[in-house]
Design goal:
elongated, single chain
Length: about 80
C-alpha cells in the first residue's frame, strides 16, 4: 500500500467519522429541527458524485469514504423528513 493510499484511507476515515456524532444524536433524540434539509441534500449530492468518481477511477479510499458519507447523509435526510 502506497503512502498516498494510506493518506486516502485516513482522510476517508476522518471524514466519515465526522458525521457519526450527528447521526447518533439524531438516532437517540429524533430531533432534526435545527438541521438544514437543503445543506444535507447538497452534501449528499456532492458525496454521491465523489462516490461515482471513485468507482470510475477505481479508488478504494474514495469509494469507501464517500459511500459511508452518502449513507450517513441519507439517514439524516430521511430522519429530517420524518421528524422535521
Amino acid at each position: 500500500m502506497s503512502i498516498a493510499e494510506i493518506i486516502g484511507f485516513l482522510a476517508a476515515f476522518v471524514c466519515s467519522v465526522s458525521m457519526t456524532p450527528q447521526v447518533v444524536k439524531i438516532y437517540r433524540t429524533k430531533k432534526t429541527s435545527d438541521l438544514s434539509l437543503g445543506a444535507f441534500g447538497i452534501l449528499s449530492s456532492g458525496l454521491s458524485l465523489w462516490f461515482i468518481y471513485g468507482l470510475l477511477i477505481h479508488s478504494i479510499p474514495v469509494i469507501v469514504g464517500n459511500g459511508i458519507g452518502v449513507g450517513f447523509t441519507l439517514y439524516i435526510i430521511i430522519m429530517k423528513l420524518r421528524h422535521g
